[in-house]
Specification:
mainly alpha, 47% helix
């Protein structure tokens, strides 16, 4: 098996968000956490703690988003 895209999960102060996920996605997150724990030599992380690093990784590697962000000066919508 190849190396996973995520590394160890940083411990950071969370912002509470409520989201409903399909059961199949939760099962995949749980399995991913198990594999990640095995790769990093740590116990499996809480699967829900994978969501933020996955989203960060997704956004960081999305070239179209990076291009748009640069062209708009990195500004964020207000509201």
């Amino acid at each position: 098996m190849g190396k996973l895209k995520l590394g160890p999960i940083a411990d950071d102060k969370p912002v509470k968000v409520t989201v409903d996920f399909p059961a199949a996605l939760h099962r995949d997150l749980t399995r991913y956490a198990e594999i990640l724990g095995r790769e990093t030599g740590n116990p499996p992380a809480d699967p829900l703690r994978l969501i933020v690093p996955m989203l960060e990784r997704f956004i960081a590697t999305d070239r179209a988003f990076a291009k748009e962000k640069r062209s708009s000066g990195g500004s964020r919508p207000k509201g």
